[in-house]
């Protein structure tokens, strides 16, 4: 404490009555000391609050990040400035050479692009051609399978039912019916449970008929796929199949239908001698 403060304190102690307690005397002395202390201005209080600085860990990290970002931007700007300066300081011949190299590179990239586009188009065309070839192969296989009797078929056609109670229907009559139907455009024929194909044969077996060695019991039912408007008239022509069967006292019924299912199948048979002549 300074001499000035000690003198003020002594003077106050003399002026205070002796019965004043020590605590009150001390408070009076502190108040007098504060009154004697110099008052701080607003600027001094602001400076006292800012210094010494109190930096937290989060503030320090943010400051470091901002410094790094600013340094990176400065380096990038300096690099771009160096490149621009190099071009500005280049000779005319160097600039022409640089432009020619850029043009050549652009042309090479354009040629490469056109080559890749051509390969893409070729691959697409090749894929389309291969897909079309596969589609045609599958369709051809299906058509040949129908003719060979190896796959089931359905479509418009007729159903012809022959009732032969006296057993007078013979194999040649049914063969005539098959030939008339084929001539009228039949695409698939089934007699009871036997598929009729190119090598089908019919024989008489007692009072019944056998188709490819399979005995056909009455009634004989033909399921035929084709154009009904052509198939039915071909059987009903004068002197044709229907009249011949009726002369033998058989009853013939023909029904048209929009959907005839021929589902009797034949196993594929490999020819013994015939081979394809295409190379």
TrEMBL record:
Residues 1-40, 109-136 are annotated as: Disordered. Pfam families: DUF881. Keywords: Membrane, Transmembrane, Transmembrane helix. Residues 19-35 have a biased composition (Low complexity). Residues 1-17, 109-123 have a biased composition (Basic and acidic residues). The chain crosses the membrane at residues 58-78. This is DUF881 domain-containing protein. Belongs to the UPF0749 family. PANTHER family: UPF0749 PROTEIN RV1825 (PTHR37313), UPF0749 PROTEIN YLXX (PTHR37313:SF2). It comes from the Bacteria. One of its GO terms (cellular component) is plasma membrane.
